């Protein structure tokens, strides 16, 4: 195959667009789409000044998505005094797995000279995921516990850093899978939270159970395989192993179905997200006009519609200690 732009050997074919691209034009394509998403989501307010820069906190796991996101953000804003990047890595207490990915995080942030913070479930909550997965007092998948704790830790440290944005490396496949899970489960609240958390509407919202810092997902237009290829071509330090406690069978089924649909009908993922984002906007508006008021968790002070937030509920079940609220 030849690159449609220059005639050199192509390294990939994007069936949804019909384009064949060489390494140079493929890398430029990914960079351009990520930067376009940053612009279209108005992540950087036009009145941001160098004497009052924004802090963007990146959730850096060491996997391909967060590593690629961090690399592109650094190259985009390294010389822009209006943006300060901080990377946060969370150690869940999974023997061997997170230690290896932490090495990739350290290598990347040292190379880019980005501030890097490492926090652990052990320090924050007095638990480790290996123990939670072994005991499983609520008979849930380990991911169900871990996802709540991870979101809370990210949100809490975003507040502690007084971050203006919290950025995660969710790609197009991640987003399409989540959209289908929410739609098939009829979870309208989660649909509404998608709009508030990731679509560039960066005012404070009344949806969700975590301390609020505006969220952004600059890779959400990039298919997973393209993120992986980008990381490979640039020889970025990544940790590719799957978590030993991963057990999201339902998401895995949807992933397989979406791959098949995308192969037979290129552009399916983009179409799903186009419709889902409009639905999410409508759901968020309806939710705010209804019963959207929140109080505070009586244990940790996190915003919640219940007396105790989900994180503290789970920590009670596993014998952990709720982290103090971040002032």
Domain count: the total is 1
The dominant shape is: globular
SSE run: EEHEHEHEHHHEHHEHHHEEH
How does CATH name the architecture? Answer: 3-Layer(aba) Sandwich
* Major sheet: arrangement of strands: 5-4-3-6-7
| Unreliable residue stretches | 199-211
How far apart are the first and last residues' alpha carbons, in Å? 56 Å
Helix/sheet category: alpha/beta
Mean pLDDT across residues? 89
The portion of residues forming beta strands comes to 5-15%
Separate helix tally: 12
The CATH class designation is Alpha Beta
In total, the number of strands is 9
CATH level 4 superfamily: HUPs
Instruction: Predict the CATH topology.
Output: Rossmann fold
Rg, rounded, reads 20 Å
